[in-house]
Amino acid sequence: MTLQKLKYLITIAEKGSITEAAKALYISQPSLSQMVKEIEKELNFTIFTRCRTGATLTTEGMEFLGYARQVVQQMELLEGRYFGSEAGKQRFCVSSQHYTFGANAFVELVKQFGQQRYEFILNETQTYQVIADVRNRFSDLGILYLSDSNRQVMHKTLEENNLKFYELFTAKPHVFLWRKHPLAKREKLSLEDLKPYPRLSFVQGVYESSNYAEELFSSEDVEKSIKISDRAAIVNFMIGLNGYTISSGIFPKDLHGDEIHSIPLDAEEAIHIGYILNKDRELSELGKIYVEAIRQYQSE
Fold first, then answer.
1. pTM listed for this prediction
2. Which residues are in the HTH lysR-type domain (predicted)?
3. Residue 191 lies in a domain
């Protein structure tokens, strides 16, 4: 296995097609296809599933490509530092549940990094996908939360995927709602207070359950429920429909000014925000900058 072959595999994954990858690499499509077959035979598993629309990574392929990216990136950094060649793009990827403070911390990371060549990815996605992205080494780390209600299942899931959870901070549950909401002037709210209003939550697809939900008390029965996939939409529904969601209470005001209020929820639960890593990896320097930026938003 050579470094060049790893680069070829990464290009195929990025292009989503062996044909398009061959064009970008200036080699023939049959030669590239044959190379992939030889590598798959050597590894004894399939990296790509071929179809009319292109090539998609298998589960084993995603994990393998995660390791391949690390090898290629480290070699490019080594060549750039000691052999005078231009360093490749620094890649850093975070997969996260939908947190405004996580996006703001990512902005701080980019500002502090300051170099000209980089490829940074922030993937706000469903809970199980956060876990899968880190397991397959597509993402350097993942951001999610644990609570008393989901801890047992989540710990089991993380263990099965060879991942470890590192807590950043603990927050009490808060209700997010519009500043003109009928309950906006209350100092504290209960679940009973919220019953007449639409509950807003992030859709989890085939893994829809209270254990993978991004909101506490998702198993509580409500008459009005709206599930969405976009963080911006949840703010629109708070304002337009007097909807609410339950989260950590950390909501940087520079995005929406005073439009959204955060009110403590009268409940015993706690939200443990943290990051997940592969058990055999340590937090990178970029990862350290990112999680420290998150801690700063929590302290503010």
1. 0.78
2. 1-58
3. yes
